[in-house]
Design brief:
Largest sheet: 7 strands, mixed
Helix content: 25-40%
Shape: globular
Radius of gyration: 21 Å
Strand order of the largest sheet: 9-12-13-14-15-16-17
Amino acid sequence: MINQMKILLVNPPFRKYKKQYEPIWRLNETVPSIWGVRAGSRWPHHFPAGKGYCPFPFFMAYATSMLKKEFPNDKVFLYDAIALKHSYLQFYNNAKNMKPDIIIQEVHQPSFTIDRIIAEQLKKTLNCKIIWTGPYPTVKPELIDLPFIDAICRGEYDLNILDAINSDGIHDYKTVEDIDSLPYPERNDVPLEQYSDHFASDGRINGLQIQLWGSRSCPYKCRFCIRPPVMFNNKLRLRKPKFILEEVKYLVEKYKPNALYWDDDTFNIGNERIQEICRGLIPILKGKITWACMARADTSSDETFKLMAEAGCNAIKFGVESPNQETIDLLNKKLDIKTVIYATKLCQNLGMWVHLTFMYGIPGTDIKKEIEDIKNFIRKVKPNSWQISDLRGYEGTCFGDISSIQYIYPWEV
């Protein structure tokens, strides 16, 4: 019977090795110099070990909770090998020992070479059903023709994952219209203490940081961004303050975190909505728990930013992309660079740690000039932290044919 099947959702290792892929399932380096992130990250990438970044796999965690509503809880498990820092050998041995009938794997373009090798080996070893989810199978559903792939879910997969379990083939978008109706994402199967966005925690938080979503998608149409158009099909949905606050209260009572982090594409949408959330957070967090968020510099009033600080927001991340207005306009970001300068100073004066993100390598721009302009802007505006990365040319965006150049880490600026 199908409800007796064991279902394993996996976020396999994504690492670089000196002897790369020879074959990867035999590699057992437990302390690599280069780590990688995949599920939960907008831009899966490798980085030096120990930098403190591990995103929570929201899509997988929500899908796990949905499946646990339909199947016995002991038949569904979320295995995040990246958060657990497992080697490829550890991952394969654990997957074999779990003896799943169905494996659900989130696949991304930057990790596709490894993802494919892993899926093929799992199929060969376990002879189980393999379901692919994530942005890359969404934009390339023809991957269903790979002999070791049985089904593909396009976009967010809270709903169509049930279809994929019951039947093979391509399962198109099924949007959750009321995201407040969803169960909370699965947090008990994973090492919750490992998840952290370091910009919001370095030197300021000792202990557990829990990541949340307060919305899905984004009202803006930035040309480089993959998640809203590909995973959310450009359908913005905002959680009501009441339900956000109920989840926060539940998390505080159950897990007793030191901090929260809203990893929405844009958290601060709607002044009245954000102010209502902040007023509700004050009696729950009681000044003892701080929080941070991914935000825009131009969607909140001064009053809203002040209330965010009063409610415990001690760190905020603004996407800037470029200090040059012409480049910002080229990206269709609909942002005035002067607003970034103003919001950065305002939030710093309110006691927030401000992290700015930039990119270079945008077609039609001079890379060397853009990088130098970014550095000069950082020196002038003085954000608390920042990151500079190359434009990631992901299929499904306007820059799908652009290959990545390199990655410049913040400490090299």
